[in-house]
């Protein structure tokens, strides 16, 4: 399992969200607290963020441990956005090890990360030509981002077709977050200036809420909605 984190709210720097929390994505790259599958997320990292300049997000990925990226550590305090999505990767056996297999995957205004694994044969053939990699998560992202309003139903369809699948996805388009809990942990933190959706709490703030398995989480200007899948 990999780990992912997203923020929607007031502008905050990539460093504040991803690198400076007590148990944030940086710490989760070597010491996740709630990860049940795999132990170290050292196979790569990625981040997407949205600015007013264009609808498509900026994306930066590397096929190396987050803790080893001195350039990100230098630049991240200077980059701020109101919507940010970050991920660290523990590659599934048999999946590619290069940067194109690292989340987040991007299509149009959307970016998506996946914690888990899915049998690629249950995903429709139409997803393959637009997939950024042959990695299961990239094919899944291609299919889900072809119909962002259908992420919940499509995750359920894939989960029913592959009962061994773990399908925690986290997607954003700059104004919305959409996440699923399907086989792994997911938590939400509502603060005065925004919302965090993450694989696991990045600190011990008592306001963190655990999301029940098989749920859909939607965050936008209207607030946070958690519904059963
Ligand atoms: N299956 C995906 C990959 O290989 C995600 C792995 C994970 O969640 N650990 O990258």
Automatic annotation (TrEMBL):
Keywords: Glutamine amidotransferase, Hydrolase
Alphabetized InterPro entries for the sequence: EgtC, EgtC_Actinobacteria, Gamma-glu_amide_hydrolase, GATase_2_dom, Ntn_hydrolases_N
PROSITE patterns reported in the protein's UniProt record: GATASE_TYPE_2
CDD domains linked: YafJ
EC number: 3.5.1.118
Catalytic function, reaction form: gamma-L-glutamyl-hercynylcysteine S-oxide + H2O = S-(hercyn-2-yl)-L-cysteine S-oxide + L-glutamate
Pathways involved: Amino-acid biosynthesis; ergothioneine biosynthesis
Domain Glutamine amidotransferase type-2 per the UniProt entry, residue ranges: 2-229
Chain's role: Catalyzes the hydrolysis of the gamma-glutamyl amide bond of hercynyl-gamma-L-glutamyl-L-cysteine sulfoxide to produce hercynylcysteine sulfoxide, a step in the biosynthesis pathway of ergothioneine.
HAMAP family assigned: EgtC (MF_02036)
Name of the protein this chain belongs to: Gamma-glutamyl-hercynylcysteine sulfoxide hydrolase
Species assigned in the record: Kineococcus endophyticus
Organism placement in taxonomy: Bacteria, Bacillati, Actinomycetota, Actinomycetes, Kineosporiales
